[in-house]
Amino acid sequence: MALACFYVKLVVGITVVIFSLIAFIFIAALAAPSDKDENALTELDNKVVVISPNAEITDHRFISEFEEVVLQLNKRQSPYSYSDQIIKTLDIAAKDPNVSGIILDLSRNSYVSYGIADVIGKKIDEFRKSSKKKIITFAPAYTQSNYYLASFTDSLTLDPSGSVDLHGVTFGNLYYRKLLEEYNLAPYVFKHGKYKSAVEPYFLDEMSDAARENYQAIVKNVWSRISGTIKNNRGLDDSQILPSIEQKNTLLSRAGFNDAAYALMQKQVDQVMSYDSFLAEALKLFPKAVKKEKYKETQLAAMNFREYLSLKSDTKETESASSGEERAPDPTVKVIYFTGEITGNSNENAFISYDNYADQIRIIGNDQSVKAVVLRINSPGGSVVEAVRLVNEMTDCFKNRGKKIVISQGSMAASGGYMLSTLGDYIYAEPTTITGSIGVFGVVPTFKKAADRLGVNYNEVTNNPGDYRNPFQELSEPARKSIEGSIEGTYADFVTMVSRSRNMKFDDVDQIAQGRVWTGIEAKEIGLVDELGTLDDAVEKAASLAGLKKGQYKVDNSVDDQNLSFGNILLKNISVKLNIENILFPLPEELKVLKTVDPAKLFSSADSNGRLKIYSYTPLRVE
What we know:
Elements: H1 2-31, E1 47-51, E2 56-58, H2 65-73, E3 80-82, H3 83-95, E4 99-105, E5 111-112, H4 114-131, E6 134-139, H5 144-150, E7 155-158, H6 177-182, E8 188-192, H7 200-203, H8 209-234, H9 238-241, H10 245-254, H11 259-265, E9 271-272, H12 275-285, E10 290-291, E11 299-300, E12 302-304, H13 305-319, E13 332-339, E14 341-342, E15 351-352, H14 354-366, E16 370-379, H15 384-397, E17 404-414, H16 416-421, E18 426-429, E19 434-436, E20 440-444, H17 448-453, H18 477-502, H19 506-512, E21 517-519, H20 520-526, E22 531-532, H21 535-545, E23 554-556, H22 566-573, H23 589-592, H24 599-603
Parallel strand pairs: 1-4, 1-12, 2-3, 2-5, 4-6, 6-7, 7-9, 13-16, 13-23, 14-15, 16-17, 17-18, 17-19, 18-22
Antiparallel strand pairs: 8-20, 10-11, 19-21
């Protein structure tokens, strides 16, 4: 036992030393002065700022800034870019006399929600009107969502090998009834809500009439918003955006079945050319943004928006003098982001759980400088228990302590996502938000028939016969009634929460509930939300409700990184190789010579009898 303790202490000690050395070297590398590129652009150089978002544009961080730096050191790109950085770039560049214009480069981007695109698009309109500067877009290919964003800019360029993917809106599902019945795996399904269609695939072969009616309305309203914005921005008609498949085939034939030529013919884009040709054209459009280097042709003076923001941030810090005096913290509006499915027992940032948020909620509740809270919700719902726990916690920490709560619904705030919305003193939704789905369902799996078919029988002795938690038994009638009662009770509680939040009668909420989903526009009409607006609108409203005047408060939209430990980040992004020969355990000769994991070498190490030797060597596991 003592020897085992020694080994554990030794491993931990070595690991701490190594991680500390890595951290020291890493920080020293960042702090060390680098040789400055003599041709690098400065703040005083006339330039074009290039906004080049990564794969997805989001409204908040999913990974920490530290982890993003680690990714860059490993020559990997973060999958995310952030709308606030893009908006800040547009705000600063509009007033910067040394910025001739903006290039929106969508080469790496494939997705942005329509709500976020609306927010950025509004800022693009402001940039163009206030600065009289142009913003032009290039993409090797346009997805529907980033084309929607690009439509707000002055001109769109497409690579000759690319296409514009305008495909409309579709809601679809796979239905498993026959499969489940064939293998005797059909579960017991309970629900309250005529339109609560999430469980239909388990007992139907196709959409119910109610679900089809609901989805048809959603498709119509969402596409009306998307196509209407594109038509307004680009001056197109319906036949240019989404012609029938027959019309499109005819038009494609005229274009020689070349997607880029088709997009140009339909005026979906303004020009088709390579990126180099696009930059050459940009140089003509922005003649002041010239970069001249010895022995090189004249180039466009272009600066990436991240570098531009860093440059402006450094300048601002240099110019601002710190008084050094301590003062009371500014009144604050805190933004909390609820993103993903609501589920229990998960510490992953991609999910919403009570454990992920409880500490943060309590800290904010105890912070007297926080006068109002904005809940930014992007969630399809999930666990009722977790949603109720979060509602209760925020009621105790925010509402009962006089902090105002405003809701900002993102792309989706349905079911449990809408349950969180009932906390709001005021609720904003985006026009294309999918919200509502006020209903409840439960699914109880059963393997009884499948086991019988295979000749397997379960038998037990228990003091609780008929317990539905055993999937190898038929669901007893008392258990069935218990589950049905629970579903009905939960639905009644949900409707009651909504009726109190929205100051509506129970029966009136029940009529618009029933599991039906609504767009933001529809939700406003029926009273489920107060106003259509952005996250910025929600922040301003929260400050107003808290009695805070513009310019007299700060907005804290930082993301809690409680689940991102230093060790986890290193393990995810840095390959740390330990060669502690004969200290912990003697290593086989085959592994001593391996500098990296090379499957070819490892799998070629068969012994004389042809048996493969595979080793697993794990000196430390970090949870």
